[in-house]
Write a structure and sequence with these properties.
- With 73 residues, the protein is mainly α.
- It has one domain.
- Helix content is 47%, strand content 0%.
- The protein is built from two helices and no strands.
- The chain has helices at 15-35, 55-67.
- The longest helix is centred in the middle third of the chain and has 21 residues, at 15-35.
- It is rod-shaped.
- The chain starts with 14 loop residues before the first helix and ends in a 6-residue tail after the last helix.
Length: 73
C-alpha cells in the first residue's frame, strides 16, 4: 500500500532550521539587552557638591569643568 502523504507539504520540513534561527535571534537579543547602556551625561550634578574648603579644591573643580568644556565664571 502506498503512502498518500506528499513530502512537499510536510509542515515539519524546516522546523529544525526555524528553531535554530529563533534560538540565535533570542540569544542575540539577550546579549544586546545585557550590554545596553544609557548615554552618559557629561554634566556635573551640583546638588551633591559640598562647600569647597580651600583654593586648591576650587582650582580642581575649574580644571574639571574646563575638561568638560563648560562655562567657567
Amino acid at each position: 500500500m502506498e503512502t498518500k502523504k506528499n513530502p512537499n507539504v510536510d509542515i515539519f520540513q524546516y522546523s529544525n532550521i526555524i528553531f535554530q534561527l529563533c534560538l540565535i535571534t533570542i540569544m542575540g537579543l539577550t546579549l544586546m539587552a545585557f550590554e545596553w547602556r544609557k548615554p552618559e551625561n557629561n554634566l556635573i550634578d551640583f546638588t551633591e557638591v559640598s562647600i569647597l574648603k580651600n583654593d586648591s579644591e576650587v582650582d580642581k573643580m575649574e580644571e574639571i569643568m574646563y575638561n568638560l568644556s563648560l562655562d567657567v565664571d
